[in-house]
Amino acid sequence: MPGTPEAGSVGKVHTQTVRLYTAESPLQLEQGGSLGPVDVAYETYGTLTPAADNAVFVCHALTGDAHAAGWHDGATRPGWWDNLIGPGKPLDTDRFLVISANLIGGCQGSTGPSSPNPETGSAFGLDFPVLMMRDLVEVHRALVKHLGISRLLAVIGGSLGGMQVLQWGLDHPEEVANAVVIAASSRLTAQNIAFSAVARRAIMTDPNFAAGDYAAAGVNPDIGLSIARMMAHITYLSEDALTEKFGRQVDPNRRQPGFGIDFAVESYLAHQGQVFLERFDALSYLYLTRVMDYFDPFADPKALDAVRFSPVNWLVLSFASDWRFGTDHSRRIVRTLERAGQPVSFREIPSTYGHDSFLLAIEPYHETLGAFLDRALAGVTA
Amino acid sequence: MPGTPEAGSVGKVHTQTVRLYTAESPLQLEQGGSLGPVDVAYETYGTLTPAADNAVFVCHALTGDAHAAGWHDGATRPGWWDNLIGPGKPLDTDRFLVISANLIGGCQGSTGPSSPNPETGSAFGLDFPVLMMRDLVEVHRALVKHLGISRLLAVIGGSLGGMQVLQWGLDHPEEVANAVVIAASSRLTAQNIAFSAVARRAIMTDPNFAAGDYAAAGVNPDIGLSIARMMAHITYLSEDALTEKFGRQVDPNRRQPGFGIDFAVESYLAHQGQVFLERFDALSYLYLTRVMDYFDPFADPKALDAVRFSPVNWLVLSFASDWRFGTDHSRRIVRTLERAGQPVSFREIPSTYGHDSFLLAIEPYHETLGAFLDRALAGVTA
């Protein structure tokens, strides 16, 4: 049954698509080469002020999309950050214009590896260019310009989204007044890379991956993609959260010990793997995890030159039980920014839910975000 | 090139096999039903005293085997616990008779799901009965009796092996003077089960699993089994160990960013997944991980009755960086045994190597084991 927007919701919304680059005027890529046309799917909530000084750009995580808040027609659930975005919420749409866009490389309306390759008419597959974080930022900057905004009041994102915020703020501080980096990292550890490597291998060794041309073959690497998701999902939750939620409960449908779904946690994971197939593309999983693997902005000795000249107000948040990008990752970001003379606020939010905490309505987390954005707005209007 | 035994090695060894149960006199299983014939592969190192009071039984982990020490003909490496077992080593074969046996359900000489089903002549596949920890203990007890030993000086094991030690000591304390439980658990958490569940799913959804009848079909679920191993391997190492070993090093064979082996840690994991195929069976992986999932001895209110009457000397060891079965798991075992009036020594060994530390020659670890076994022997000969 379709859900109903409640008070505090932005209400009915829909995703728009805009062509930001064309074959004639393509996106120039960080690794060389170019890409065009490039379409970007996005949503906005709230109203831009005449001075265009109240825009907050929301950056989604690995498997997110442009639909951050409100309700699509007939949907059974709202956008992925609906608890944060809306009238009276921390991202108050009575005061801010909130922008959310699907990443290039993604699969929810923006150009990605399963989009048609203009040269062949079939999906790009592995002929899609390898992307780097700066490519993702460039496309979002182009969208911001398209919307008539020369400087964002804030960019904010969790996980991959937080990594994108960091790159954006470092490279273009004059276009970003405030930056919120949540549950993110300035560089993945070997363990982080390892989990993504096994996920990618599960996808690529699925016979239905067909060397990336599964769409043309009329198949989909469902098995590999669901294995990848199940494994990743374990790392998004804390051990305590899984214990509290499932412990050692036996699945109610189990008849006797065997090799099916015996424990409740197995049922949960199988479900997560299954529903993921309906909303995510295997190639996008490869491309966007690789963006994270290679992300290492502070390895560039000039990384901090721009912000030294034009500081950004940073807020860095971690969650106590996050073992994917835990507090150590955030502290490294904070220390590096501080050494470059940046104004940085840092807070470790108490939470038992692990990495996925950044999606939840945890009170001290939302309070911190709300207060930071209030100050951001006051700084502009003062 | 074949390796050469060094000083302190037990030298050349070979695996023997004994039929401990027959079709006429089968093993009675914990879940009901029976299994026979049952063959068990084992090795021994050292000499049994005339009083048969110096036998130490070594219990292997999930993917271990009977070959714990010394060298097989033409082998390039010694047994998996060779650093611990040998003349002058903590498990000193000049003083102890050390016994190591492959688990039933395994695939290295003992009867398992890929052994021939006497009813069909083909491999059992998923018709092999689901095993519980007590089944594994029963078979090892039968081997001990076969060897003319009525009471073991000690049983010792890590991970699944440690869990087996716990069950053995609890159920048959009169046959076990000393018990060493290393990097083990008295019950898996939801996260522990989740990792094994995804590994099993990778195996069972591989088209070459063929519903467990892959041997008859002349195929093997290589893809699923290697994915399972790669994922599990991440959990056997600490994040720090992976960082120290690989960090963010790029693989020397990488030409440009892509979706192959770009980082050194990816190469390492791929190698781990590949070599595992040569030594392990997919069905054994299912059966033995399920034994661990269901292991929960303290859930039985009578679990401690036997040891209250006939205490065992327990040594419980954990490793500081083990996040698979960390110190919390060991502490739960220690507290429960202490409440039952058992003499328990506990030590958390400082180590940065994670769960796999139990296989390494870490000095304080080996010293602790050696001292415990020395006291065990002194207790007998006093």
In short:
The structure is a homodimer. In chain A, helix 10 links the parallel strand 11 and strand 12 (about 345-350).
3D structure, described in words:
The structure is a homodimer of 382-residue chains. The first copy, chain A, contains eleven helices and twelve strands. In chain A, the strands form three sheets. In chain A, strands 1-4-8-5-9-10-11-12 form an eight-stranded mixed beta sheet, with helices on both faces. Chain A has a two-stranded antiparallel ribbon with strand order 2-3. In chain A, helix 3 (190-204) packs antiparallel against helix 8 (282-294) and helix 5 packs across helix 7 (264-279). Chain A has two domains: 16-187 and 296-381, Alpha/Beta hydrolase fold, catalytic domain (Rossmann fold), CATH 3.40.50.1820; 192-290, Rna Polymerase Sigma Factor, Chain: A. Chain A starts with 15 loop residues before the first strand and ends with a helix. With 382 residues, chain A is an alpha/beta fold. The mean pLDDT of chain A is 96. Chain A has helices at residues 133-146, 160-171, 190-204, 214-217, 222-236, 239-245, 264-279, 282-294, 305-309, 327-339, 363-381; strands at residues 16-21, 27-28, 34-35, 38-45, 55-59, 85-86, 91-92, 97-101, 152-158, 176-182, 313-319, 344-349. In chain A, helix 2 (160-171) links the parallel strand 9 (152-158) and strand 10 (176-182). In chain A, 35% of the residues lie in helices and 15% in strands. At the A-B interface, helix 3, helix 5, helix 6, helix 7 and helix 8 of A face helix 3, helix 5, helix 6, helix 7 and helix 8 of B.
